[in-house]
Amino acid sequence: xxxxxxxxxxxxxxILLALLPQLFAERLLYLDPLTRGRVQEALRRTANEEGLLLxxxxxxxxxxxxLVVHHRAHARGADARRCFTIDLSSFSRTPCDVSS
Amino acid sequence: MRRVLLILGLEAYAALLxxxxxxxxxxxxxxxxxxxxxxxxxxxxxxILSQLDALPxxxxxxxxxxxxxxxxxxxxxxxxxxxxPRPKRFLLAGLWLFSGGVLLQAGTVMMAPLTALEALIFxxxxxxKIPSVWVGFFWLFSxxxxxxxxxxxxxxxxxxxxxxxxxxxxxxxxxxxxxxALYTFTNPLILSSVVTHSNRDLxxxxxxxxxxxxxxxxxxxxxxxxxxxxxxxxxxxxxxxxASFLLVAAYIAFxxxxxxxxxxxxxxxxxxxxxPKLLLSPRMATVLTAIxxxxxxxxxxxxxxxxxxxxxxxxxxxxxxxxxxxxxxxxGHEWQxxxxxxxxxxxxxxxxxxxxxxxxxxxxxxxxRTWRVILFEPEVWVxxxxxx
Lengths: 100, 388
Prior knowledge:
Shape of chain B: globular
Oligomer: heterodimer
Radius of gyration of chain A: 17 Å
Largest sheet of chain B: 5 strands, mixed
Order of helices and strands of chain B: HHHHHHHHHHHHHHHHHHEHEEEE
Structural class of chain A: alpha+beta
Number of helices of chain B: 19
Strand content of chain B: 5-15%
Radius of gyration of chain B: 23 Å
Number of strands of chain B: 5
Number of helices of chain A: 3
Structural class of chain B: alpha/beta
Largest interface: A-B, 35 and 41 residues
Strand order of the largest sheet of chain A: 1-2-3-4
Helix content of chain A: 40-55%
Order of helices and strands of chain A: HHHEEEE
Largest sheet of chain A: 4 strands, antiparallel
Distance between the termini of chain A: 44 Å
Strand content of chain A: 25-35%
């Protein structure tokens, strides 16, 4: 059993390493209530204006003034993908490269 | 040869349950898992399912797969009851196969039946004294399948304590929980969904909640297994069974979703196995369970209606429609699953790229000169050029 303990530890560390980049990208959501509120509003507006479902959004990066989100229209087979860079003060958005 | 015939018979039963569930089409929660929509549950199983989403028969394949797992799990029970006389083993198998949990949920593409199966495997691991590291891995997988697996942590802790010190048991128990918590923070949609669901049914009285929990307790084990299992849990005084039972009951009292009835099922089996004296008059108990279970299934399956998403898409199927499908009004993820066209919420400026508009509430006004209505319930508009 002792011999196997590291295997469980290694797998757990690999999962942790896989999660850390996304946690780091979203840190301002949890550390800054003002940014969190602006991100919520930005996503709500983008979803309404583009007719997109909120469940398809994934946050790629957040800074004090800018949000980059990817949207995936979950469907059978290949999913349509979009990317938006959103200004967090004016909520204006510009498309970005989906592979970014 | 006899065993092969039994396996085939069970498989036919699983296929029947899957077919009956398919009559209602894909439900919104099922679509989330089939399409790997990243809430409310973690990704372990839904990611696997999504790898099959391009297959035209994905829904039926997964229904049969899930039903097979639930029905063929009877062999796990068979193994756990190895020391019982044969009639009692058959009774136990009958109680499982005709329980409301299996009959009503075996063919659904939901995480609740899988969680129930995982709890059954933990009971098996407990009996077989499986090494802690495998318990730890299975616990990690279970948690990343569905959050409600956490309700069975007393079973997991009991498994771990058979081989490990408290400190090492806590390591195996808590590391997966911490990883799950971190995963949850990477997906704010889950947190938002939890907040939304926690506000559901707040006005329900205590009595309402108790009655609803009692109803699901009855359904989960088709009444007979519910009574035998609960009595067994109480008489055996096995703390891990009692603790998990209380956690499941409390969780159901707060959440009140019918599909959680199946979470009681492995605990009832654990109760009966822990106090086998309860397995009296096997024939009578099996027949009663079957009658109640079939009655429950009949009530459910005769009231199933095909979703409007499927009927609408079937209607549009013969037309050469192109462009997005816009929906006015609140809709579920089953539309994403059924529709070969991209689903978007209705907005007038999106009409240019749309081929179909579906109104699930009053249709908004727009210039309809190039559109024709082809259905009134729900109201479906198609661009005239795709109708010729």
